[in-house]
Amino acid sequence: MAPFFIFYLIMINVLMSFSETTSTNTLNVTCVDDATIVLTFGFYRGTCPEAESIIFAWVEKAVSKDPRMAASLLRLHFHDCFVNGCDASVLLDDRANFVGEKTAGPNVNSLRGFEVIDAIKADLETFCPETVSCADILALAARDSVSISGGPGWDVQMGRKDSLSASKSAANNNIPGPNSDLATLVSKFQAVGLSPNDVVTLSGAHTMGKARCSSFTSRLNGNANTNAPDINVEYLQALQQLCGSSDANTTLANLDLSTPATFDNQYYVNLLTGEGLLPSDQALISGDDEARRLVESFVDDPTIFFEEFKKSMVKMGSLGSSSGGNGEIRRNCRVINQFN
């Protein structure tokens, strides 16, 4: 990473802008709890120079033990950012008189990787107490999960603060569901400031990981018309056999049948052959010519996908919130400092 001038600016006026590029001259502005934070590259270079190497080492260790963990850590960052911005609210545990987001429909018995984040945070607190935010850990762990799995790396803008609150209702309403059609996906992405192109690009994260059979039952049950476009009868029959012979709430299927632990463009190849696992996956090429053209461009040239994915991740990582406080650097990612 090229050297950058490090600075941190908090302003009173609420501002928000999203970057379309990872240019070294670009700054993103995010809002956490009514305070505006300027995200910068190299944010911890002076205060915790070990931060990125510590996070990478823990992610590498976790993924080597469990390759699925790469997708899980990437998903944690997604689910965090779609609820009032990238503020680590998804990491907060329930406690007396406080309900977090972990029991929301899209998260309960589904999100993984909390223990990895705990280990990273504990190590960072040893080297640089109360310096690196849990929200920044999530953003860096997501990047490292992709690069360790064969995907691109990118410079992560940092300086996020951790929220003092969470919203189970926002998690239920804002996070796109696996049975969403394209119009619903676009609507939910646009609601947080992301574009239709970001929908197609960020869906490429499903090139890694697994999903429970219960999350794509409508895809299994909706294949009566086997002559419909983009229906792969053989693939659907294989899924029906997998999911019909066991508990749909525990049985897992690979999101990418061909290279489930590798970050590549195979996800988009699968869509064109009718092998997208989730209804929301296959929806990307059904009924929208622009979305399909973007999918086809990613199939033709994986470097285009990698470049667009990097841009969309930086853009998503800049999503901010304004929920009524000042934010903080949590000492324990599961609880705000007041109760720690």
From TrEMBL:
Cofactor note: Binds 1 heme b (iron(II)-protoporphyrin IX) group per subunit.
Cellular component terms per the entry's GO annotation: extracellular region
Enzyme Commission number(s) of this protein: 1.11.1.7
GO MF term list: heme binding; lactoperoxidase activity; metal ion binding
Active-site residues, as the UniProt record annotates them: H79 (proton acceptor)
Membrane-spanning parts: none
Cysteine pairs bridged by disulfides in the record: C48-C128, C81-C86, C134-C333, C213-C243
One BP annotation, GO: hydrogen peroxide catabolic process
Binding site for Ca(2+) 1: D80, V83, G85, D87, S89, E101
Lineage top rank: taxon: Eukaryota
Binding site for Ca(2+) 2: T207, D256, T259, D264
Signal peptide interval: 1-21
Binding, heme b: H206
Entry cofactors: heme b; Ca(2+)
Every Plant heme peroxidase family profile domain range: 38-337
Site (Transition state stabilizer): R75
Residues the record lists as binding substrate: P176
Location within or outside the cell: Secreted
Family classification: Belongs to the peroxidase family. Classical plant (class III) peroxidase subfamily.
Protein function: Removal of H(2)O(2), oxidation of toxic reductants, biosynthesis and degradation of lignin, suberization, auxin catabolism, response to environmental stresses such as wounding, pathogen attack and oxidative stress.
Name of this protein: Peroxidase
The organism of origin for this protein: Lithospermum erythrorhizon
